[in-house]
Amino acid sequence: MGLLDALFRSSGILGIAEETLDFALESAGESHPDEYMGLLRASEASRLGLDREGLVVTDVLVIPGTETNSVSATVRTSQVPNDVNAVGSVHSHPNGVLEPSVEDLASFGRGSVHLILGAPYRNHDWQAFDSAGEPRDLEVIDVSLPDPEDFFDFDQADIDEELREW
C-alpha cells in the first residue's frame, strides 16, 4: 500500500451529507462543460449527532492545480494533502454518462467511495461506486454540518486524537 492509498479510509461509510452532495452537484454545474473533480472527506457519524457507527461524507476538497477539460480531470498528486479523513473522490461527466471510464477505474483504488456526477447535475444525476467500479448505495443524510470556520480550529491534541482513531 502506497502513502497516498494509506491516507484514504476504506470502510464504514454510511452516506453523504445532503449539503455536501448539493455542493458537489452545483460545483459540477458551474464547471460545465469541463469536468469537475475533488476528493471526499468524511466525519464520524456521532460527531454529526447521529446515533450510528460509521462515517458520513461531509466535505469536498478541490485540489489546487487540478487540470480539467471536457473529457478529463487530472489531479496533481503532489498537491493532495495528507488527510486521514479522505475516503474517495468525486468528479463529473459532462456527457451525463454515469458509468466509470477505464481512466476512472484506474483512479478508484484510493478510497472506498467514488461519485460520478452527470449533466445536467440534478439531485438524481449521480452514482456512487466502490473501489472496483461497482455501483454502490450511498444514503443521502440530512445532517447539520459543522461551521467551515471550525475546520481550521485545531491543535496538536486534536491531530493526535485523529491519528489514534485512524
From TrEMBL:
Q: Which UniProt keywords apply?
A: Hydrolase, Metal-binding, Metalloprotease, Protease, Zinc
Quick one: a GO biological-process term for this protein?
proteolysis
The identity of this protein, by name, is Mov34/MPN/PAD-1 family protein
According to the entry, every stretch annotated as the MPN domain falls at: 14-135
Does the record carry Protease as a key word?
yes
Q: Name one Pfam family in it.
A: Prok-JAB
Coiled-coil positions are none
Question: A GO molecular function for this record?
Answer: metallopeptidase activity
